[in-house]
Design goal:
The chain has 136 residues and is mainly alpha-helical. The protein contains 10 helices and no strands. Helix 3 crosses helix 4.
Amino acid sequence: QCGAAGAMGNLAANIEYGDEILRAGAQRYLMIMLRSEEERCQRMAAMALCNLASNLQNQPKMIAAGILEPVVGEATLALDAKSKSDFECVRYCLLILANLAVCQTNHPQLMAEALPVLAQFGAHRDVKCRQYSIFA
């Protein structure tokens, strides 16, 4: 699974493949993998979703398929100082939100579902997480 998610992430970096990946229903499986107990699977799924979200044409489909709930959920977990969250995965989640924030149509939903969590990253112990939350 981890290898498949990594391969999809690499393919999704090419805009031409993103639509095909979404039409094949991969987002659903990547969102499930984002909650995996295996850190590497989480990271690869988050990277793939981040690359998919970098294409404006993919964003409406991703929002409609419920991308915000697992991404915001993973970011929320990382706010707990006792959490053993993988910061690399969390960074990808924050970059997903930053990618989605590029499109003004996504702003109302992002403000309602993600802004409270993003605001809390201003004091996060990981510098890159703080920076990525500011991008969003």
